[in-house]
């Protein structure tokens, strides 16, 4: 079986790539060459945004599966349809579970939960891409499958409620230095974290699967943790008990309007997912990596890879200012 991955070295896709190789797929990665390509994988160095160059590089080639891990807008999707619609028996689109209804009308999220997120443009763009694909499936018979991951992480990227543009290292440092770390709300909302190697099992099980055509699948862990539990678990991996600063989502968004999407449109909501649909088609999909294990692995990897230990003084200062402003407001009320 032949597959083409656009990307293939990111947080989600690297684990899928590794598993596909172990299971004997004839795999080609098309990307700009910034990530490590595993042994046994063919590599095509090209920018997917250069449509003419990609078309030339793939001339005369066909694949059983094409999966593009870096499609975020309908413009990018239309480019993919021009490039791949006639080159594959299955096009897999990586959507997002953040596209599900916000706020949720029911505690359990299934594939039939409405797709509606007024808070985050990222999610609305994913919804628009899905609508375009399902229309093409109904009207032109496009062989397509949609997958909807939620918060997926791997050993290189620890899952946190907030971090700066430089990544998680500054938050890890704050915990170890005894500085408070921000958690939105009271920290009791439920969150679902999925390790990429578990996600890969379900994803690979959908590849080349005729029954998956024209379908959408949620792929997440069945482990739900509160944000307080997430941060306490991270603290265990850091070797220090975190001091949690609980701050309302309204206050955080007022301090940084760019957080409206990631918080109101995602992390500030309790999310519990029903994975029974993908499990019926991929019975071997069982998540075996609890977050306690995954967090320890991620922190251990950070501690042994200096190149990933990127300080973020701007984020550190922002956290200090937000926490100080929040505490000052509480003092003004209680002392007044």
Mind explaining what this structure looks like?
- The chain has 336 residues and is α/β, with parallel strands linked by helices.
- It has a single domain, classed as NAD(P)-binding Rossmann-like Domain (Rossmann fold).
- Helices cover 40% and strands 17% of the residues.
- The chain contains twelve helices and 14 strands.
- A seven-stranded parallel sheet has the order 3-2-1-4-5-7-11, with helices on both faces. The protein has a three-stranded mixed sheet with strand order 8-10-12. It has a two-stranded parallel ribbon with strand order 6-14.
- Strand 4 (65-68), helix 3 (74-84) and strand 5 form a beta-alpha-beta unit.
- Helix 7 (227-238) crosses helix 11.
- The protein starts with a strand and ends with a helix.
- The model has no long low-confidence stretch (mean pLDDT 96).
Summarize the structure.
Helices cover 40% and strands 17% of the residues.
Looking at this protein, list some descriptive labels:
globular; 14 strands; 7-stranded parallel sheet; 3-stranded mixed sheet; Rossmann fold; alpha/beta; 12 helices; 40% helix; 336 residues
Summarize the SSE layout with pairings.
Layout: E1 2-6, H1 13-22, E2 26-31, E3 42-45, H2 51-57, E4 65-68, H3 74-84, E5 91-94, E6 108-109, H4 121-140, E7 144-149, E8 151-153, H5 169-176, E9 181-184, E10 190-195, H6 196-206, E11 215-219, E12 224-226, H7 227-238, E13 244-247, H8 249-255, H9 260-267, E14 272-273, H10 276-281, H11 291-303, H12 313-335
Parallel strand pairs: 1-2, 1-4, 2-3, 4-5, 5-7, 6-14, 7-11, 8-10, 9-13
Antiparallel strand pairs: 10-12
Helix pairs in contact: 1-6, 7-11
């Amino acid at each position: 079986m032949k597959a083409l991955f656009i990307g293939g070295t990111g947080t989600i896709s690297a684990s899928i790539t590794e598993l596909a190789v172990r299971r004997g797929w004839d795999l080609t990665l098309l990307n700009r060459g910034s990530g490590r390509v595993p042994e046994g994988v063919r590599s095509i160095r090209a920018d997917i945004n250069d449509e003419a160059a990609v078309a030339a590089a793939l001339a005369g080639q066909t694949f059983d599966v094409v999966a593009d891990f870096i499609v975020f807008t309908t413009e990018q999707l239309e480019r993919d349809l021009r490039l791949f619609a006639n080159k594959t028996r299955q096009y897999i689109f990586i959507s997002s579970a953040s596209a599900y209804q916000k706020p949720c009308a029911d505690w359990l999220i299934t594939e039939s939960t409405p797709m509606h997120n007024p808070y985050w443009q990222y999610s609305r763009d994913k919804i628009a891409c899905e609508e375009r694909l399902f229309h093409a499936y109904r009207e032109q018979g496009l062989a397509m499958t949609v997958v909807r991951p939620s918060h997926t992480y791997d050993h290189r990227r620890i899952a946190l409620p907030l971090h700066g543009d430089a990544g998680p290292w500054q938050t890890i440092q704050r915990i170890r230095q005894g500085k408070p770390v921000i958690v939105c709300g009271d920290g009791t909302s439920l969150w679902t974290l999925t390790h990429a190697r578990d996600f890969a099992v379900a994803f690979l099980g959908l590849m080349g699967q005729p029954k998956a055509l024209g379908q959408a699948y949620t792929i997440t862990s069945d482990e739900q943790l509160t944000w307080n539990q997430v941060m306490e678990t991270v603290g265990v991996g850091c070797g220090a008990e975190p001091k949690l600063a609980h701050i309302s989502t309204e206050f955080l968004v007022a301090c940084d309007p760019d957080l409206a999407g990631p918080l109101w449109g995602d992390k500030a909501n309790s999310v519990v997912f029903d994975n029974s649909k993908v499990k019926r088609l991929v019975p071997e999909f069982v998540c075996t990596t609890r977050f306690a294990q995954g967090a320890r692995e991620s922190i251990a990897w950070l501690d042994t890879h200096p190149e990933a230990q990127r300080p973020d003084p701007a984020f550190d200062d922002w956290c200090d200012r937000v926490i100080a402003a929040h505490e000052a407001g509480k003092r003004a009320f209680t002392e007044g």
